[in-house]
Amino acid sequence: MTKALLLIVSLFGIISIPSASGSEPLDLSPAKWIWHPSGRTLQNTFILFRKEINIEKKVKTAKGWILADSRYLFLVNGKRVQWGPAPSDPRWQEADPLDLSAYLRPGRNIVACIVCFFGTGDGTYPIGKPGFLFNVNIDGRKVVSNSGWQTRVARSWRPGAYKRWFLRALQEEFDARAFPYGWDSLSYVPDNQWYSAQEVSAGGAESSVCNSSSEYQWEIFGDPAITEIRKRSIPLMEEKFIRAEKLSGSMTLKWTGSPEEYFEMLIPNAFHAYKSATIMQNVPGPEYIIQPVGRDAVLLTFEFNEQGVGWPSFTINAPEGTIIELLVHEAHTPGKAVLINSHFNSWTRFICKEGLNRFETFDFESFRWLQLHIRNFNRAVTVSEVGMRRRVFPWRNVPEIALSNDTLQKVMNATVNTLNNCAQETLVDGMARERQQYSGDGSHQMQAVFQAFGENTLPYRFINTFSQGSSLDGYFMDSWPAWDRLARTIERQMQLTGWGPILDHSIGFCFDSYHYYQYTGNKEALNEVYPRLVKFFGYLQKLLIQKESLLPAENLGMCSVYIDHEAYRKQRHKQLALNLYASAMCVNALAPLCELFNDHTLAKKVSRFGNRLLEGCIRKFWSKRQRVFIANLPWIKEEKEIRYCDRSLATAVLYKQCPGGNFMNSLEILRDCPPQMGFSYPCNAIWRLWALSENGQMGTVISDLKNRWGKMSSVWQNNTLQEFWHADTDDGSQWSHCAVAPLLMLYQGVAGAVPLTPGGQLYRIKPQPASLSHAKFSIATNSGLLGFETTGLRGNRIIRITIPRGLDIELWLDHREIISQKSQKRVSRGWKKYRIRGDGRMLTLPLKYT
């Protein structure tokens, strides 16, 4: 056991590197970390904290900070205030701002907090130690967390409850009979189950991993020399209640065994389902009245208008001891499955007190379908107010997109809603499964967040927090801050998984950092990030196979190479795409960042290394006869087939890596998609679309968006984009996943809008509406919204561009176009470019060849 614990400590040490933060630490002293008096805390333990505050007169201002490990729900006088905190690296936690000015009143007040300590890994939580920290200034009077607070174990949630799934910590079971209702109000009188809080730190300057609470599961000890608390770097989320659209079905279940055992172990053939006329619906409301049918259970299935992220909830009037399992799912086909319990154990159990009960899950979910499995009742029960407290990022700009094609319109709407679900406090892949922040295929969201929503703080948080997953060796934990790759390091050492920290995601993060600078011009935001990028470059150099001048795609040790799920038949086929990607990163992203930080010698070294990788790719994978990179060129005789991959072809076209500029064959393969070409899953499909759009193939791109993306089931059922090209209902498929290619092609393809200078003071506009007869949307820039509208078809098209003040555009048009603007010069491959200064007015362009 001791050896296992030491292994955990040493593996956590892999990512414990000193911070180079340029941000000012937040010292919340004299507040202290507090916890319930204890010698150990079991996983999924809930603690209640309360304190009475007497206010002499009307409050003018009551602002401060709150932080808890792992998650909190804060209340004042029984009213919900906020839920948090945002997922953070445990060494550099972010405290949430708290404004109680509108909640406190003259006289006695109760401030209260429910804190859940996960104690085990989660998609939003890598590791930590239990604690609660609070510091609010009420008109000059400090109210802080200390031993003056009262605490109680909330046994309505059983401490030590089992984990839901590998990447979800909390399998929630709430027993209303054991909950001290009114505990957060003035009328409540604490009994002997309440204790004075235990102070577990000397002050409030260090993260929870440094406090003295007992963390017996992992035996971790934070280093005060490197940890600090920081201010929340993004706004608080917005919450809005959404009612379920309708009751889509009801069934009665006769259990042949124990329902508890079924939900614990997924016992097959545990029940029989039949229809029964036991449901009466009353409106308005609506309310659903359910009559008991012996000892059988009743199942109500509700659907929402679209998939969202939030807290599912309902009200039920029922006898004491009635049990409800609330199940959620992304996608369901009525009649295909009875219980929608096929999505990573996405259920919560509630046990009723007598009479009226209002239930809401403690943690949020991502779903469109909600099911209530009601059992153990002996009188009529009434269900009402079924809904979701939906959470969405408070975007600066909500995109308004109008397109002439109905299918494309649906695809764009689905992409926007997908970003509402995936881009919240972190940029995750899918909220219903991992809820983890990835670089690589997941970080394309960052550019869409910039251009569609005009949001800079969320990309900043992504760049900053992801970089904190830098290992001692130099590679990045490719999903961070989260549990996945922290756990995989253990599994990898024991050869129990093929997944290690993904090397190509680390490469992608160097691109992400460069793109962040291009969109914002904010060099200071990279002060903490840049040294970690340099360290990663050192790691890349150590991996090099000297005789080939290539990075390996197999047998890397701790790391693994992903590139894509679907585009490859063999792992060794990924070596070409990996090395072209790394070469492009070195030359086009990391070297320019080195120059930005005045590391001129290193910039040259990085560029040379990137060029060496390209030379290795050309020697091993370039076919002089076909004038194209072939992913399995060294093994064609053995494999008796040719394999291309869209990723390597697109990279070579985009970054001009084809020898002698011979890229047309690559472009043709990308356009035609022959069966020999591996085709990436949706998140990585953007590379092919980028290459096509940059080389005048927007007709193919528009067709692809209509006929491939437009056929996604999720677009029409959930108003989202699914993870794979095919998605089934009632299983583990992800129906809201972070593929944002349609939006990127709208902005960067149809409008051809990309920043040319850091901070985006100069934007390129290269219109390519192709078959779109009308499109109207705006591109968010640091200078304001850049309006873009196209009307008509080729031969008789009018494009209108509204350029905000402070923004210059470099307009690219077909060289045959004649407009009133004076061109700068003719650009290769048939384009002219024009420099136009923005003055807030609309530029109208009648065009014939565009």
Description:
The chain is of the alpha+beta class and 850 residues long. The chain is 23% helix and 27% strand. It is built from 17 helices and 39 strands. Strands 11, 15, 16, 17, 18, 19, 20, 21, 22, 23, 24 and 25 form a 12-stranded mixed β-sheet that branches. Strand 8 (131-138) and strand 9 (141-144) form a beta hairpin. Helix 9 packs antiparallel against helix 10 and helix 14 runs parallel beside helix 17. The chain is globular and about 80 Å long. The N and C termini lie far apart (69 Å).
Unreliable spans are 1-22
Shape: globular
Structural class designation? alpha+beta
How much beta, percentage-wise?
25-35%
Number of helices: 17
How does the major sheet shape up? 12 strands, mixed
Helix content: 10-25%
Give the helix/strand layout.
Blueprint: H1 2-13, E1 34-35, E2 45-55, E3 62-69, E4 71-76, E5 79-84, E6 94-99, E7 107-117, E8 131-138, E9 141-144, E10 150-153, E11 173-175, E12 195-196, E13 198-199, E14 230-231, E15 238-243, E16 246-255, H2 259-265, E17 271-274, E18 279-282, E19 287-290, E20 297-318, E21 323-329, E22 347-351, E23 355-360, E24 365-375, E25 381-392, E26 402-403, H3 406-422, H4 445-453, H5 457-467, H6 484-493, H7 503-520, H8 530-543, H9 574-596, H10 600-621, E27 622-623, E28 628-629, H11 636-639, E29 644-645, H12 646-654, H13 664-672, E30 677-678, H14 686-694, H15 698-707, H16 713-717, H17 741-750, E31 754-755, E32 762-765, E33 774-781, E34 784-793, E35 796-802, E36 808-814, E37 825-827, E38 831-837, E39 842-847
Parallel strand pairs: 6-14, 11-22, 29-30, 32-36
Antiparallel strand pairs: 1-13, 2-7, 2-10, 3-6, 3-8, 4-5, 4-7, 8-9, 10-12, 15-25, 16-17, 16-20, 18-19, 19-25, 20-23, 20-24, 20-25, 21-22, 21-24, 26-33, 27-28, 31-32, 33-34, 34-35, 35-39, 36-38, 37-38
Helix pairs in contact: 3-17, 5-7, 7-9, 9-10, 9-12, 12-13, 12-14, 14-17
